[in-house]
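Hi R.,

As promised on Friday, here is the backbone we talked about, encoded as structure tokens. Could you run it through your design pipeline when you get a chance and send me back a sequence?
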């Protein structure tokens, strides 16, 4: 998705037993746990947007194979 990518770090979004959401983002310097839904919900929305716009697994494999062959 290039420049439209909204998540710039590896992010884990966890649903806790009480159904609350927690996010964990990690960089080379530190990890950040966030429990405040004000911050977690936008990350969840960005993740769902990535899911909606992502190619299927077979289309992704085909795109990678074309790139490896040098076919635009």
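Update: got your reply. Pasting your designed sequence below so it's all in one thread:
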């Amino acid at each position: 998705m290039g420049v439209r990518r909204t998540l710039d770090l590896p992010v884990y979004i966890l649903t806790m037993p009480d159904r609350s959401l927690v996010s964990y983002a990690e960089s080379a310097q530190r990890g950040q746990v966030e429990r405040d839904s004000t911050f977690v919900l936008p990350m969840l929305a960005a993740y769902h947007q990535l899911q909606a716009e992502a190619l299927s697994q077979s289309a992704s494999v085909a795109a990678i194979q074309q790139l490896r062959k040098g076919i635009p």
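One thing I noticed while checking it: The helical segments are 37-53, 57-69.

Thanks again,
M.
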